[in-house]
Amino acid sequence: MKSRITLPSTATRFGWLDAVRGIAALTVALHHLSAELFVGFGAAVREWFDPGIFGVMAFFLVSGYIVPASLERRGDVRAFWTGRLFRLYPLCAVVFVAAAVLVPQRFSAVDVSVHEHPLLAAVANATMLQDLLGLRSGLPVMWTLTYEMVFYYLVTLLFMAGAHRRSGSVAVVFAGAALFLGPWAATWSLRPEFTVRQLTAVTALVVGTGLLFLLTGRRTAQLTGATLLTGLGLALMIANGRSTPWESLLILATMFSGTVIYRAERGQIRRGAAWAYCGFVLVAGTAAGLLYDDRRAQIRTWTASPIAWVSAFLAGWALFGVAFLLRRRRMPAALTWLGLVSFSVYLLHRPLISVMSWSMAKVGDPHGAAQELIWLAAFLSALLLLSAFTYHTVELPGQRLARRLLERHRGPSAGGEPGVPETSEKELVAARQGQ
Predict the structure, then answer these.
(1) I need a labelling partner for 355 at 20 to 30 A (CA). Which of 75, 85, 173, 213 fits?
(2) Do 182 and 292 touch, CB atoms closer than 8 A?
(3) What is the spatial distance between Cα 22 and Cα 37, in angstroms, rounded to a whole number?
């Protein structure tokens, strides 16, 4: 009698990633909400643990795990970037415009630069490198997308150069640079050599040119584009970032650590080597946070203490690690659904908090825990409903449009998804509908 090999279901294979994204997005939302509700409790928590750092580190590990896999499984740089652009830009544009137009300026749904210098802010944010140009992100939470874009540039260049399997070495280099160069890198700056307008104009030109090269389908042009974009992204990140250089470098080290975990799972590198690479990043991150997150750095890391940064950094890793160990188990449906709409939750929660502040100004601030709990329930209900709406009306149509453009260019034989996250979401929905 022949034995049958039972493969894990689609929902099981990808549910753990959605669970991490869902928990991370909701934690960041509640972290920012604590500025309006449960203020004293939130301040006490942030002294020892920063929920925002926890959430974004978990996000970065997920991106590191899944994004390079998307590019490598496709083997098509143009398809990868088409998927990425249509994954990020539609929702960012819709939320950005709605927040700027619908919410009064005094409740700051967008950064003040959007109202004072609308054209400059629009161009800077369109590059998704705005946090490296001397401007605050139009939507405050979009600072993480800056690091996502630099990571995409690096992943593309490594893939084009045939060095994509060296994720462990790359993670160690960034973590080592964060630990050993952190204090000196903080003194580097592109200002005052460039004004914000000049830097934004040059960046927009290079980003536009680089992306056009990546979308040509010609290897030489794509390699040129990836090189330009990677050089620009790293230079801006180290010398002109809003955050400290050591934190920026650790973010990239964390994302490449997610890639290391993926490679170890797939048997592309030895597990002992993966443990060594990830262990070094954890040790370097812990040491850098304790050594460098002083009072001056906290203005740029938005944290309250070195312990708060380090505990959150380690907890983000712990969440990802526990979910990874449970990856063959079926995750709770609520968590996997929350993961599907996590990008909407992440972008929408700050504008919604501004709307809530606007409402409180009209009806009065809450007094007492009971009233605060009512506001909390109303906020979460509105956030999840709006996120479900934008997921179905903005995110999914953008992904479908990317697929149609690719199919039109390459024919029906290229009808796969433009990226693994989109594939997993489509399959998860289909799997649940079949249950």
Answers:
(1) 85
(2) yes
(3) 21
Confidence band for 201, pLDDT divided at 50, 70 and 90: very high
Closest CA to 428 of 18, 66, 48: 18
Q: Can you tell me whether residue 75 is helix, strand or coil?
A: coil
* pTM across the whole model: 0.90
> 339, 429 in Cβ contact below 8 A?
no
CA distance 403 to 414: 9
Angle at 53 between CA 51 and CA 56, to 5 degrees: 105
125/120 Cα distance (integer angstroms): 9
Q: Answer whether 319's CB lies under 8 Å from 59's CB.
A: no
Q: How far apart are CA 74 and CA 68, in angstroms?
A: 10
CA nearest neighbour of 111 among 126, 119, 100? 100
pLDDT digits (tens, 9 = 90+) for 147-183: 999 999 999 999 999 999 999 999 999 999 999 987 7
Domain ranges of the chain: 10-433
Separation CA 243–CA 143 (nearest Å): 9
DSSP 142: G
